[in-house]
Predict the 3D structure of the following.
Amino acid sequence: MSYHFNKIEEKWQKYWAENQTFKASNHSDKPKYYVLDMFPYPSGAGLHVGHPLGYIASDIYARFKRHKGFNVLHPQGYDSFGLPAEQYAIQTGQHPAVTTENNIARYREQLDKIGFSLDWSREVRTSEPDYYKWTQWIFIQLFESWYDQEVEKSRPISELDEIFASEGNSRVNAACDDNVEEFSAEEWNKYSADEKEQILLKYRLTYLAEAEVNWCPQLGTVLANDEIVNGVSERGGYPVIRKKMTQWSMRISAFAERLLQDLNKIDWTESLKESQRNWIGKSVGAHVDFKIKDTDHKVGVFTTRPDTIFGVSFMTLAPEHDLVKEITTEAHREEVEAYIEASAKRSERERMADVKSITGVFTGAYAEHPFTGETIPIWIGDYVLAGYGTGAVMAVPCGDQRDHDFARHFDLPIPNIFENIDVSQEAYAGKEGTVIANSDFLSGLEYKEALNKVILELEKTGQGYGKTNYRLRDAVFSRQRYWGEPFPVYYVNGLPKMINREHLPLRLPEVEKYLPTETGEPPLGNATDWAWDTKNNKVVSNSEIDDETVFPLELNTMPGWAGSSWYLFRYMDAGNPDRFVSEEAQKYWENVDLYIGGSEHATGHLLYSRFWTKFLHDLGWLTVEEPFKKLINQGMILGTSAFVYRLEGENVFVSKNQIKGNSVQPIHADVSLVNASDELDIEGFKKWRPEFADAKFLTEDGKYIVGREVEKMSKSKYNVVNPDEICKDYGADTLRMYEMFLGPLDQAKPWNTAGITGVHNFLKKLWKLYHDGEEFSVSDEKPSADSLKTLHKTIKKVTEDIEEFSFNTSVSTFMICVNELTAQKCNSREILEPLAVLIAPYAPHIAEELWEKLGNSESVTTAKYPEFEEKYLVESKKNYPVSFNGKMRFTMELPVDMGKDEIEKNVLEDERTKNQLDGLTPKKVIVVPGKIVNIVI
């Protein structure tokens, strides 16, 4: 019987869907296991073969856990808000919801073809009102909370109001804005309601503030750092500038220490943890105030090396620093303003990465040294960032290389404060063992002693204090887009008010245009019905806005990471109309046991999700503080690009081996136009690229050979391989096993379609193992010892590999197993039945078909995982090398437990021994049981 993989796969995919085979229960006596893939965005391009890599790995593990007796939750859904759908809407006028729905339908079709064991009954989409209702609800909880640093926990804002009313804010240790002034209970109780709201806004965990943002004029929106590549927008490649805007922000910085310390509680790779540690960026030092000469202003700086304070020779402020325009003198104003404008066009990431360019401008202002009173020139430079620390640095060129380079470039002093160290050519950053010199009361002290002493002196004189700082900044939460979660916010007297839970969701309104308004407002400014009627609790026309009951709604929408920060909990109880997740469901599933996704989310998504989980735990909505117990980053499948070579200035293409001596321009060609021998379909290429329809091709023996290069698989490089075509030509089981066979899960590996036939042939061989010609042929005969040994060494190796996520070696083990069983002519049920279960996580369709043919009425998914038995690997016989005078002449198989005398007797009686002795009597027979026999003659 032939292996008709297309029919088999269609049959079982239909069976799984109709029987909801992979539907998980929230009530089970089995132990639970929750497997999750990182939330996919449904792109219009659909899946290429690189996308399913992580999904296949998680599916193998989910299926394995089901066989091992676990109640497995393996859900899927869509992160369906996003900029691409909005950009398409701007270009075509098609509503993003329509685009998104079409893209999801395409994704679902492709995912189903690969045979994933997903519980589709729990599907969620972030753009569905029933889902984002709860994203809005979480936002409100954050707004109604503050962070108590004394107990390291989020608390209701109502409790803070009570504290202020009874004792003011002097003893409150809260995460809050820097510009909060001290007040008494008496003063608080005299404030108006609006004044109180203004103050509380400085404490809330989500708050309105003027922030430096990445503004992209062409896209009309703020971009996150990870949406910017090389200073331009990832989407469209448009210029990005830094500007100040009033935005919603999330006070994630309050959780910095918990986010840092709790990395020790989770099973993530060390490199991933280190990425998070670097992003959080904890540093211990001091805050120092420098008075600006002839003004009432002070510049605060954070430094990890306050012991070097006597080495300060200038100060550098970020170009965006609030004081720059105020302190700049008229003589330097034009130059300063030009520099500010230029630096606004560079992203923060670009400025941090650029260590070669040295630029800056003197403001004309001076600061006073806190201990000596000496004047210190104040410069601006874009190597200082407004959002990190205070946006200002005390420049110590002898101790910091960037300061040193800046000082040498602008001919500024480099005073040396280190004993017996030369700093004329480069800065010295050492700490331990360093002795401070030329530093007044710090001279002669080593690093630690000097550090403690200078902090005490700063605090004594009121010019500074010891401080722990974090690089992690509060997250900007506003986007000037249409296609995102609406904020459940309306404004009364310019102050934000929350819509009550019972009136959620606040749905996206219809708009005629998806671009910002002519006056620069976000796209929601185009909506005609976007005001909140507080009397009737509903959205009404903007024309009804008044000062009593109808108020304007927020025009920004939430960022993409809003819905993806908590989606794992919605899967536990999808569709619950009363809670984002029931207490019962969350207690059962707890959190994700295995999370698989790309390393590009090592900071942003994972930090935000950890932050929201900790917050919801603080308020008692969750029992866990971490969302993901174990996390694996899968590597990338790379594409093998094809290049054609055009002669410079001509419409002539030369074959790869004719390039030498010619000046050519390499151009990507669609890999589908190239065969396994690297020959280009010339006529197909001409039709594919009309501008080359009349091109000439210089071939080699009538063939045009392309160049090859391994690159990231991308539509723009035309090296994308469609998984649908692989499934059609070779089957989903082949695709699944081949992707695992390519190499270790966490490493990048190139795709090569030519190699897929080997895996496909293996599956054919597996199929034949259960058949005799066209007939299914499995016997109930007792298997041979060799077959039992083959099976059990396969169980042992595959089980070890799957638990170590070493799926590529599992595939190799299966190939060896099938080859051995074929050679043994094994058709025993005792071997072939467990083998079908063993391979089911990898190749589920063929396993289901074989399982059914073996006489089973239930899905192979329900079968118990085969148990390894060591006894079948214990050797009963030993193949002894028999030597004569140290030279091995033949081998002889004897029982392992045979004694020394019996071994000697059997060897001497063997005809081959007699032939070697040729009538001679051995002088000595050396027997080492289990190893060798040597006859001395």
User: Anything to note?
Assistant: Residues 785-803 form the longest helix (19 residues).
